[in-house]
From TrEMBL:
High-level lineage: Bacteria, Bacillati, Bacillota, Bacilli, Bacillales
Organism: Salicibibacter cibarius
Binding positions (NADP(+)): G162, R163, S164, V228
Occurrences of domain Tetrahydrofolate dehydrogenase/cyclohydrolase NAD(P)-binding (ranges): 136-277
Pathway: One-carbon metabolism; tetrahydrofolate interconversion
Name this protein carries in UniProt: Bifunctional protein FolD
Length: 285
């Protein structure tokens, strides 16, 4: 079997076009504040990508760039100001942050209704309890890719490799919310291949280049590669999945680059439009 390739790049072009149409229909111009601390080249590139995508969709973006010497209290004060500013609908602090700043303190400071990253504990808790919530962008993008490909999670066995707050845990929760039977694997999992090879849906989100080979994959499975690993010698980007081998066995597969990555930014636009609508928590119960 040769897998169908799920292109996040192509899907993003379509979805971003649809989002731009939605933005034109809104009474307000959605506005996103992005805070970037430090000089990590990858973070700079992602923030540039977010700015560009916002502009193309008709979303206003404000980017605040600070040196890595920024103090935590200064960052929290800036978040407070954006929380108070009613013209700003979404707030995002690019991760990772320098070590002297507590990511938890920063995430918890963002107003729940402006938390377009979906990292605030209230949004995490709402997701856990099956309520409407801002949902982290990469997991949301993964679910969209499965949906568009006709891969229905209900009753399927899903295995998530990786347990990060950004991707592994929330994507497992979303799959569970869609009635999949979910197993998490991580660095302490024994005989990884014996678990992953049972998966109808396999999410590789461990951040280890090429760790998922053909032996880890069930024939016909949907394999979603979240890995963004830079090969030092070539500077090229590679995923957690050995694409060329696995694509001969899987039913569906996402490439790196051009797979999950672009969907992360697309779902940020989606969440920002939701924030501008201001209706996320209307069904409060
Ligand atoms: N506050 C946040 N910080 C981080 C998040 C996040 O969702 N919110 N996710 C990642 C980084 N990220 C977005 O911020 C991101 C990662 C990758 C891509 C992407 O499009 N990748 C391309 C390749 C780009 C390249 O060549 O480097 C691809 O996979 O095709 C977009 C956004 C951590 N931080």
């Amino acid at each position: 079997m040769t897998a169908k390739i799920i292109s996040g790049k192509e899907l993003s072009t379509q979805l971003r076009g649809e989002l731009a149409d939605e933005v034109r229909e809104l009474k307000v111009t959605p506005s996103l504040a992005v805070i970037l601390v430090g000089d990590d080249p990858a973070s700079h590139s992602y923030v540039r990508g977010k700015e560009k995508a916002c502009k193309a969709a008709g979303i206003h973006s404000i980017v605040k760039h600070h040196p890595s010497s920024l103090r935590e209290d200064e960052l929290l004060a800036e978040i407070d100001a954006f929380n108070e500013d009613s013209s700003v609908h979404g707030i995002l602090v690019q991760l990772p942050l320098p070590e002297h700043i507590s990511e938890n303190a920063v995430i918890e400071r963002i107003a729940v209704n402006k938390d377009v990253d979906g990292f605030h504990p209230v949004n995490v808790g709402r997701l856990l309890t099956g309520k409407k919530a801002f949902t982290p962008c990469t997991p949301l993008g993964i679910m969209k890719m499965l949906e568009i490909s006709g891969v229905e999670p209900r009753g399927k066995r899903a295995v998530v490799v990786g347990r990060s707050q950004l991707v592994g845990r929330p994507v497992g929760q979303l799959l569970l919310n869609e009635d999949a039977t979910v197993t998490y694997c991580h660095s302490k999992t024994k005989d990884l291949a014996s678990v992953t090879s049972q998966a109808d849906i396999l999410i590789a989100a461990a951040g280890r280049a090429g760790m998922i080979g053909e032996a880890h994959v069930k024939e016909g499975a949907a394999v979603i590669d979240v890995g963004v690993n830079r090969v030092e010698s070539t500077g090229k980007l590679t995923g957690d999945v050995q694409f060329e081998d696995v694509k001969e066995k899987a039913g569906w597969i996402t490439p790196v680059p051009g797979g999950v990555g672009p969907m992360t930014i697309t779902m940020l636009l989606h969440n920002t439009v939701e924030a501008a609508r201001g209706t996320m928590f209307d069904d409060e119960s």
